[in-house]
């Protein structure tokens, strides 16, 4: 299907499908098989100048034969922000404009972004992938739940993963100098407290982290960046690049299935205990013995408490944990888990901020052959702020096992 640009003088360049006739049937064909296949959406984020656009151009120019849609979530100053969408097919890129309700994609009517993309696919046929590039100052934790759409809603898109670009040269400084103005906002929903910078949030929510601009740092500096990043987010896969040239697309940036699979290897790797290099944010792993269905219900209640209520206090203190440390409310950004059930089987747990769900491992491929979780204990991995492992473990056991 080919597209022409039809630029009339007043509005944005609209796309008109060339030779409408033969497009009609392959459009309808697209729409039919679209209902069968759901299209993965990958959120590409990263601090100002990290290399997001360089990555997008690299992906769009690679000759991979895939039909990839790119949505640039640039916040224009106009009231009704238009989303420019580049559709690339066999390297040919065309612009499409996606009218969205005004306000940024993560603040406006929650599902406007999903609806707009779905209606576009109805018109233009399904894509193989959708890449949503955020601005350098976006908090992906607000965007992810928007695209992590409940299966029941019958959405034609699903969240495949969050990829964060990191500027190897500047990230340590970025993480060490949170700019309060960035994190303080009158809208409490966005206020992430005094110590978290946007760079922290973009790293803590990532499923894949691309440490870019490796040419600008020494090997020792690169190791320091890797250590700091994996102390914040021990779950994310890390790639080191120059000019955002990742080793491959599939499995590296695309086809991550980060929200419908939980491989034991990533859980085991995260559990290796990472030095707490960052004062503000970390990864913590908790363990649970095989659970009964009743205990799984109690775990659900525990998670609602810790993820939803603002007054969760991890108590009683475990020995050696200071009162204020145990009392400061944890702020969880990403949750993953593999829980062993007493009657057999494994339940996977996925969570982003307050949205979480249990998935029967039987429903998804339990990749990661280490299998240690199947035989032994279940594991929960939290990434976030004010995570005091001993106090959290004690609260979890009191809530689920008592
Ligand atoms: N030396 C070096 N420069 C790079 C590398 N990757 C990107 N750049 C340059 O860094 C600058 C910023 O790259 P972009 O891709 O525009 O970064 P961005 O994240 O899209 O930036 P914003 O949209 O402003 O947030 C550009 O001049 C790139 O050419 C790299 O690996 N090494
Ligand atoms: Zn927002």
From TrEMBL:
Instruction: Kindly give the Gene3D superfamilies that the UniProt entry links to this protein.
Output: CobW-like, C-terminal domain, P-loop containing nucleotide triphosphate hydrolases
Checking InterPro entries in the record gives: CobW-likC_sf, CobW-like_C, CobW/HypB/UreG_nucleotide-bd, P-loop_NTPase, Zinc-reg_GTPase_activator
Q: Which UniProt keywords apply?
A: Chaperone, GTP-binding, Hydrolase, Nucleotide-binding, Zinc
Cross-referenced PANTHER family, in alphabetical order?
COBW-RELATED, ZINC-REGULATED GTPASE METALLOPROTEIN ACTIVATOR 1A-RELATED
Q: Can you name this protein? A: CobW-domain-containing protein
Recorded hits in SUPFAM superfamilies, A to Z, give: Hypothetical protein YjiA, C-terminal domain (SSF90002), P-loop containing nucleoside triphosphate hydrolases (SSF52540)
Family, per entry? Belongs to the SIMIBI class G3E GTPase family. ZNG1 subfamily.
Q: Which reaction does it catalyse?
A: GTP + H2O = GDP + phosphate + H(+)
From what superkingdom does this record's organism come? Eukaryota
Q: Which residues form the CobW C-terminal domain?
A: 328-399
User: Start and end of every CobW/HypB/UreG nucleotide-binding domain?
Assistant: 40-238
Organism the protein comes from: Aureobasidium pullulans (Black yeast)
